Amino acid sequence: MRQPDIDLPSRLLEALSPWRTAQTWRIGFSGGLDSTVLLHLLATLAKTRPLPRLAALHVHHGLQAVADGWPAHCQAVCDELGVPLQVIRVSVQLGASLERAARDARYLAFAGVTQLHDVLLTAQHREDQAETLLFRLLRGAGVRGLAAMPAQREVGGGYLVRPLLDVSRAELERYAHKHGLRWIEDPSNADQQFSRNFLRQQTFPGLTERWPQAVTSMVRSAAHLREAQELLDELAEVDLDDALAHSRHVWLGMPSLALDALIDLSPARQRNALRHWLAPLTRLPDSDHWAGWDDLRDAAHDARPKWRLAEGELHRADEHLWWLSGSWLRQPLADIAWNCPSRPLELPDNGELLVVGEAPAGPLQVRYRQGGEVLHLPDRGHRDLKRLLNESGVPWFVRGRLPLLYRGEELLAVANLPGLDGGALGDWHLHWQPPSSDQGLS
Questions:
Q1: What is the DSSP code (8-state) at residue 368?
Q2: Is pLDDT above 60 for 440?
Q3: Which residues of this UniProt protein bind ATP (predicted)?
Q4: Which residues neighbour 358 within 8 Å (Cβ) at sequence distance 6 or greater?
């Protein structure tokens, strides 16, 4: 059996070999044992190997008085190793889980500083991976959750990489003692009110006493589940291929799926495809909340169903599923005077409006549909707007925020709809750029 602590530097370099062309390696540096060893390893290797530029990042949560001294400790370590340090102070939004709130704040800070082609390195090790698997198993996670922490994933403009997942905490401790490293002991790590601390201090000692290879076996299981999730993702891509075909309303710029491409799949494949599609958009629902998908899918043809999720809503209209979030969930401000139609008009909570071509004479005003509107078309006479929208197949959730251009009480144009957008009245068109529905959660 190999001596793992002896070849730790070469194992680290092997794990990081795909990332050697990055511009910068940023090390998430808490000052604890794990990140101290990672930082020391990289700083030492950089003296003899051509590595990307190193930079350390310390996130200060401000949750404990003792933590106020940690940035100074981290600065001293970085000065000794010749690695620049950036300290980011974050505000933790307290909720049901302090652990999760602190983690969310930390990774939001990581995403904010990780630039294009940068790699952010964090020091989670083998025991962390096993704890993650067991913790998620106890919470009833599915295959994606039980795959535990991936070795790499996208963050900000670059990638987050965990190069020590195959290294045990004991190996890190041996390295630290061998090189005389100093690190911070977080007093909150002794508090068993936190679930991971309870698992670490109460559960794992008993497991490893009875089954010495428990941690290694659990990490192996997580790898098997990760492979299974990759196969499920591939299946989802196949199932979504037809469903991602654009509708006739591509100008909405919204994530959407063709419903008929999904309903012929088995319920399990429907959920798998939707999980894959929703993952970059919102936190996924637990098993109890997937009934919302059944209700949305099975609603009557003329119904207006929606499924509320953590970061938005899934609507069904025009035989498509539409993802709405952000400004799309807020009622836009109506009755806006447009005094300079030669320039784009910013619509509060509703994107941007402009006239392409020579704008009609004013004074002009932008309104939204209230009901009963009539549009005069030169070749068709006065037409009820509701019927015109039905003919155009505009999804129902768009109709109340589709910009209408008025001159006095005369409705001149409806944005973006060919034949209704002003072209019939002159050499101009009313163009609307809707608000983005992209939350950027990937």
A1: -
A2: no
A3: 30-35
A4: 426, 427, 428
Phi, psi dihedral angles at 113 (to 5 degrees): -110, -10
Cis status of the peptide bond prior to 52, with omega within 30 of 0: no
Cβ atoms of 58 and 29 within 8 Å: the answer is yes
- Residues paired with 118 in a beta bridge: 24
Give the integer Cα–Cα distance in Å for 307 and 299.
Answer: 11
* 88-92, 166-170, 226-230, range with the lowest pLDDT: 88-92
The binding site for ATP comprises: 30-35
Please say whether the beta carbons of 316 and 305 come within 8 A: yes
Q: Report pTM.
A: 0.80
CB 439 within 8 A of CB 325: yes
φ/ψ of 262, rounded to 5, equals -105, -35
CA nearest neighbour of 405 among 367, 353, 442, 379: 367
Round to whole Å and give the CA distance between 423 and 426: 5
Q: Cβ distance 309 to 278 under 8 Å?
A: yes
Q: What domains, with CATH codes, occur in the chain?
A: 8-227 (3.40.50.620), 244-324 (1.20.59.20), 336-433 (no CATH)
Task: State the amino acid at position 406 in one-letter form.
Answer: Y
Residue 355: count other Cβ atoms within 10 Å of its Cβ.
23
111: which residues sit within 8 A by CB, 6+ positions away?
155, 156
CA distance 56 to 50: 18
How many residues in the chain? 442
Among 133, 173, 99, 82, smallest CA distance to 164 is for 173
For β-strands 352-357 and 345-346, DSSP reports them as antiparallel
User: Which residue has 């403009």 as its token pair?
Assistant: 157
Q: Are 124 and 169 in contact (CB under 8 A)?
A: no
CA-derived radius of gyration, the chain: 28
Residue-wise pLDDT tens digits, 15-58: 999 999 998 999 999 999 999 999 999 999 999 999 999 999 99
Strands, sheet with 158-161, edge to edge from the N-terminal-most edge strand = 85-89, 53-60, 24-28, 118-121, 158-161, 152-155
Residues 162 and 149 sit within 8 Å (Cβ to Cβ):
yes
Q: Which residues are annotated as a binding site?
A: 30-35
Mind listing the pLDDT tens digit for each residue in 148-165?
999 999 888 899 999 999
- Name the strand (E) or helix (H) holding 338: strand 336-338
Element (H, E) at 10: helix 8-16
